[in-house]
Every structure is written in C-alpha cells, then in structure tokens.
Amino acid sequence: MPITRGCPIDRLRARAITRTSHDQWAPARRGQADHIRDLQAAIRAITCRLSLPVGKKGTRKEPGGYRSAREWFAKSRRLHLLQDRLKRQQADQQAGRVRVVRGGKRLARAQHHLEAQGVTVTSAR
Hints:
By secondary structure, the protein is an all-alpha fold. Helix content is 68%, strand content 0%. Helix 2 runs antiparallel to helix 3.
C-alpha cells in the first residue's frame, strides 16, 4: 500500500503546533535559570543573617540578626527548604529537564472539575 502524503493544511497545522511547543521551551529555560538565581540570593541573605547574633541591630548598609530565637529557628528551617529546592532545580537543569505546562487556564480548570461537566476520569484520558 503506497504512502500518501497528507493535505498541505494538515502539515501546516502540525508545524504550527510543533513550533508553538518548541517556543515554550526557551522561556521555560530562562525562567528556570531565574528561579535558581533567586533561590541562591535568598539562601545567601538568610545565611548572612543567621550568622549574626540574635537581636543584633542592623545598620543602613548591613542587616542585623533575627529579633528572636523563634524567628532564627523559623529562618533556619526555611534555609533548609530553599537549599532542597535549589538542589532539585539544579538537578533538573543539569539533566536538561524543564517544566512546561501544555494548555492554559481553561484546560486546567476543565480537568479539575470533571464531575461538574459530567465527564468521568477514565473518559477524559
């Protein structure tokens, strides 16, 4: 059976879908790099303030220590959380993995409210 070529319109649609899909990767990579930079900045800031004594007053040029032991403890927990997030993001970046969401708000809302539309989970997939 010979292979027939599709309609030129079908090829154009497929090309448009592929192009828009590929166009989503560049902003996702930039966003991932920005997120890593933001995490690193937050880690530096918290580490700097954690190294200062509790209750130390800050100046105009330098921040002071945290006001109480409770705040110091909460920020030390936050620091560990940020470090874990940074490790995951860096691992994703080194593996070349980027999180790209296909579809938009309308599709996401439709998927989260299947019962309201009278659709079952198995038929939606």
